[in-house]
Write a structure and sequence with these properties.
CATH class of the domain at 71-225: Alpha Beta
CATH architecture of the domain at 71-225: 2-Layer Sandwich
Strand content: 35-45%
CATH superfamily of the domain at 71-225: START domain
Number of strands: 10
Number of helices: 3
Radius of gyration: 25 Å
Shape: globular
Helix content: 10-25%
Structural class: alpha+beta
Order of helices and strands: HEEEHEEEEEEEH
Distance between the termini: 84 Å
Length: 225
């Protein structure tokens, strides 16, 4: 038997018989979530179950207790056109200049009216959180809008020691005022930070931070003429 096997091997070498080389295949890209268009107006907050928490620096902040995590909405004004405001919002490479707690920020893909971005948060007391967002934007007449939603399948694998966030979504509805020179902005935000986390603490902190988000965007507007 050993001799027969040796002879067969020699014949294969002489005939240059090789096993077929596997062909590398690229997995198909993860389909993008469908775009939902502009977020709803502030006039629908009450019917959707949002309760007014208060007003600070001209920004009204609302909260809804409907699902785990933090769900907020807000409305306020900017002294700039909707297009300029949206340019600030969609310029993700510059977000670390003004977004609180944003430790890492990397654009993974970009196309016509969308981008995918990976972000990592450095939060006080808590472990770091990270997520991948699929961001879309568009126009509806004079109105401008943008949305973001978690899309883990479109980003990197989880990192050891970092809690992966899988429920994060929101958006901006930007309506022109003052003949197009100003903007009435409606902001919606939902985030479940996951892991070991007291939800009441996140809600209180986020409620205080929302008017600061409007103020930080306002501070960026001179760089987007």
């Amino acid at each position: 038997m050993l001799l027969r096997g040796t002879v067969l091997l020699a014949l294969l070498v002489l005939l240059d018989v090789r096993a077929p080389t596997p062909v590398a295949t690229t997995p198909p890209p993860t389909p993008a979530p469908p775009s939902l268009g502009a977020p709803g107006p502030a006039s629908s907050f009450a019917s959707e179950g949002f309760k007014l928490l208060g007003e600070d620096r001209g920004v009204k902040v609302y909260r809804r207790e409907k699902r785990p995590g933090i769900e907020l909405a807000a409305e306020g004004a900017f002294a700039a056109s909707p297009e300029r405001v949206r340019r600030v919002l969609t310029d993700y490479p510059s977000h670390q200049r003004w977004q609180k707690y944003l430790k890492g920020n990397r654009v993974l893909a970009r196309g016509d009216g969308f981008l995918d971005v990976y972000e990592r948060l450095d939060l006080p007391v808590l472990d770091d959180r990270d997520f991948t967002l699929h961001v879309t934007w568009g126009d509806e007449g004079d109105l401008r809008w943008m949305r973001f939603a978690s899309a883990s399948a479109r980003g990197p694998a989880p990192v050891r020691g970092v809690v992966r966030v899988t429920s994060h979504e929101g958006g901006w509805r930007l309506e022109p005022t003052s003949g197009g020179r100003g903007t009435h902005a409606v902001f919606r935000f939902y985030l479940d930070l996951a892991g070991s986390f007291p939800a009441w603490m996140g809600k209180d902190q986020a409620t205080k931070d929302v008017p600061e988000v409007f103020a930080r965007i306002t501070a960026q507007l001179p760089g987007y003429p």
